[in-house]
Amino acid sequence: MMTEEKEIICIGCPIGCKVIGIFNAQKLIDIKGYQCERGREYAIKEFTNPVRVLSTTVRIEGAMVALLPVKTTAPIPKEMLFRCMKFLAQVVVYAPVKMGDVIVKDILGTGVDVVATRTLERMERKI
Ligand code: SF4
After folding, report:
1. Mean pLDDT of 90-118
2. Cβ–Cβ contacts within 10 Å for residue 40, how many?
3. Nearest CA to ligand 1 atom 3
4. CATH number of the domain that 92 lies in?
5. For ligand 1, atom 7, which residue shows the shortest CA distance?
6. Is 34 among the domain residues?
7. pLDDT given at position 19
8. Which of 11, 71, 78, 98 is deepest in the core (most CB within 10 A)?
């Protein structure tokens, strides 16, 4: 049987166990190295459906800075991170914006919103 191994570090506690997933034809068939149930569950998720919260910035017009920090309201599939970053690179918002304002609803069909993580007031430009 041709198997493949992938390695992750469990972030469930400060011990940081090295956990190894064994795959056959892309399917997870065994896990080694975890020391507790929490670590086993974390590893299964990480090996089968890894997710991350996306934190980045979008362009903002009319504020004292050019970029507004934003993040997803929940983790999204890791494989969607790059596409979401690309999408957000095209987004421009206009001040004022309040922390928690929804900047993009249901980004790329993930069911997760992107919200502002900072309040930025409107600044009138002096000519
Ligand atoms: S497997 Fe358990 S003991 Fe090891 S790092 Fe994860 S949570 Fe901690």
Report:
1. 98
2. 16
3. 35
4. 3.10.530.10
5. 12
6. yes
7. 98
8. 71
